[in-house]
Specification:
The protein is α+β, with helices and mostly antiparallel strands and 204 residues long. It contains one helix and eleven strands. The chain has a single domain, classed as Beta Barrel (Lipocalin), CATH 2.40.128. The longest helix is centred in the N-terminal third of the chain and has 34 residues. The radius of gyration is 18 Å and the shape is globular.
Length: 204
């Protein structure tokens, strides 16, 4: 079998797995939205996420236990509108499809994000083939940034999209070092993972 045929088979396999993840996540999100009575702002339902629609090449870095930044393998990250333009979905494939897959296979994940006009915030849900549950976040847009808050892998987490342009954006994940239940104590955030994204040229 030729290399091109093998590549096509692998891509088809990943697309099928992403479709399954999407179906499971849509069922969860629709239940969440029905419960919250959420509805999109018809004048601009995608907000700042509209600038992210397209296919992106990702350079990512994780913070080691020694406090040093190290490359994390890269990814493809693709954003597109769904539900007749009322929401946005994005698919994560790591490492990118133009790189060999590790023996353990690629990480595949998908987000669905929709704006709840009643609460004036984004509601989001993430599912991946490496996890066993749906991770949920809420987010606001502030000064050109998208700031997400929620729990990821059991940790209080803040994720920020910033420096968003037509061809690039930056992204950070922070975890909170806050201890105890005293609400008066402000959390201390530490960046543990970061991304630099570049939009792919058409045909690339």
């Amino acid at each position: 079998m030729s290399q091109s045929n093998l590549s096509s088979r692998y891509r088809l396999g990943y697309l099928k797995e992403l479709c399954l993840l999407t179906s499971l996540l849509l069922l969860f999100v629709m239940g969440l939205l029905n419960k919250a009575n959420a509805y999109a702002d018809k004048s601009n339902p995608l907000g700042s996420f509209k600038s992210l629609i397209g296919e992106w090449s990702i350079k990512d870095f994780s913070l080691s236990k020694e406090g040093k930044w190290q490359p994390a393998g890269g990814a493809d990250w693709n954003f597109y509108p769904i539900l007749n333009g009322a929401a946005i979905q994005d698919d994560w494939i790591s490492p990118a499809m133009d790189k060999p897959a590790p023996k353990s296979g690629r990480q595949l994940g998908t987000n669905i994000r929709i704006f709840n006009q009643k609460t004036n915030e984004w509601q989001m849900a993430w599912i991946a083939n490496t996890g066993q549950k749906v991770e949920t976040f809420k987010a606001i847009e502030l000064d050109g940034k998208i700031v997400m808050l929620g729990k990821y892998q059991g940790n209080d987490t803040r994720i920020t999209f910033f420096d968003i342009t037509e061809s690039t954006f930056s992204w950070t994940m922070e975890v909170s070092s806050k201890s105890g239940s005293d609400e008066k104590v402000q959390p201390s955030w530490k960046v543990v993972y970061k991304i630099e994204a570049s939009k792919k040229r058409k045909g690339s």
